Amino acid sequence: MQKRIIYGIDIARGSSRARELPRYALAILKDGEVSHQSMLRRQKIFNMIQKERPEIIAVDNIFELAADRNELLSLMERLPEGVKLVQVTGGLHPEPLVRLARKHGFSFDPENPNEEAEACARLADMGVGHEVSLFEDITKIKVSRARSLGRGGWSQNRYRRKVHGAVLQRSREIENTLRDLSREKGIRFEAVNVKGFGGYVRSEFTVYAKRGEIPIHPMASNDAQVSVRSVERDKIRYVPLKPKNSRRKFTIVGIDPGTTVGIAILSLDGDLLYLKSFRGIAPDEVVKLIAEYGKPAVIASDVTPMPSSVEKIRRSFNAVPASPGIEVSAEEKIALGKTFGYSNDHERDALTAALLTYRSYKNIFTRIEKKAPQNADIELIKFHVIHGIPIEAAIEKVQASGEPEKSKPKERAEKPEDRAIDETLLKMRETIQRQSEQIQNLQEYLEELKEELIAKDRKISKLESRLNSFKKEAYSEIRKSKEIQNRDEIIESLKKEVSKKSKTIKELRRRSNKLRKIQKMEVRGEGTAVKVIAAFTKESIAETKEKYGLKAGDVVFLETPSGGGAATAQILVEAGVRAVLIPEDISHAANETFFKGDVPVLKDIPLERAEDFAMADPETLKAAIAAWEKEADAKRHKAKQDELQSLFEEYKSERRRGLV
């Protein structure tokens, strides 16, 4: 069996704040035997700690080992798992070491560093002092790239995928390990993964447990690296040591889970030891708080089935689960908690769970108290019965283990009056001592809370200031981004409009150049301009009119003259065109309309085409128009003759009818 080892350390020469490294006196306590070593450097002592792994390192002032908080933090990170640093003189309000030694029945020479180191070790062995805690029960694990990706090259993507793939693989291995740990021990964790090309850029895990409880260690490979560190507290916390050979009390704990957690703790006698609610408290903090008030025999919830968050806390204590099995009304909860008092519904529900559980065991506890021997450890018997052992078997087990004897029978008989007085005095002394310790703890805790509150107020103020700054920046960026987007849309729309207008301008310039060219030819007498109409339809006529205009005196060419009728021909007549050129015959109705409108219709006139324009020889056109006009005059003259002949014939006919 390994011996209990405690190191007592006292500074022998120099100071932790001096330039010259200090020397220390070391007292090593092994099961009551003490050995001394003098004038050791701090590094030498830490090498011995790494080798022997003592249970406790006891000092009268932690800043004899380190000059400041940062140096102390560095030293504590190097301590092996399970080694406690204890300041035997107390926490926030230390008590002189000489007075503590005298209080616990021994004395030493305060001028002798060896004796002072031994006093520290012996006091720590008695359970005197406070453990120094600089780390939360939270561990951060980070997986990241082990090297930079560089500026890149032809194989940059393949290299990036390889590195990110290594980070992904390592992250999954760690996550699988943490999931197994969560199933086995109920340890909660959170993961944040940042994806990259071909894998993860980095992964961060927040594990709500001490670093020593997690089987993951720092490592580095060619592509990925893993760092593991405990989360530092905002301030140093001093945790009182448990007195030597003291057994923790058994309790019944009721928990109401949720964003606000209610906690109620009862003794096995039904006394309320603790009742409070916390908003946003972590599960490990709940476990730690419950443990400070004893060992839970039962963890209870006021709902059935028990919520998973309460079940995890129960498993961490290996306690018996309990729940009412039926829905408890609000009126019943109020009636149950009225005697004890509570601040909110969360405390009420937690208290209900604990009280209902105690009531369910009350009859069994009464039977145990009647059956148990006078000097038996009744609380331990109750604990065994709660865990399913019959009452008689539990009594035999406690008696056989040698634990039940709280006080051996005195050899000589005492008077009942003296015994009663002694018991009363003993209880009063215990009560006074317990209350004094409780008051001191509460005072220390109050000071800690005040300091934490001030620090948190400052932190909140800074964070609010940063948040406001971020909001302004974000709003400015959003507004700028929106304005840029609107402007981009306007610019894109204007670009399309400019492009469209550029095409129109280009087309108009082309037409203008053609018109100028034709006008020059007309002026020089080289030809007569002819406007080409693609088809003998209203639409084609309108299109030509829109593009090039259609005015009196224009000569037009119907590229496809078929299809048009009198109405279509009338449009050209009304426009006052000089002549209509056709490659083939048009309809009789159209021809008649042109004839009546005195518009020459000329067929097979030679033309020189240029897209929507054509040129006709002026003389040829003039001769063709003259020929048409001559033919038209003859046609009109013949029409008049025919009309006169018709009138004459009609007259003759009427005369004959009259003579008859």
Automatic annotation (TrEMBL):
Q: Which residues cross the membrane?
A: none
Instruction: Tell me one Pfam family matched here.
Output: DUF460
Q: rRNA-binding as a keyword?
A: no
Region annotated Disordered, chain positions:
399-419
Report the coiled-coil segments.
425-511
Feature: compositional bias, Basic and acidic residues: 403-419
Tell me which InterPro entries the record gives. Answer: DUF460 (IPR007408)
- Alphabetic keyword roster: Coiled coil
What is the protein name stated in its UniProt record? Answer: DUF460 domain-containing protein
Source organism (scientific name): Methanosarcina flavescens
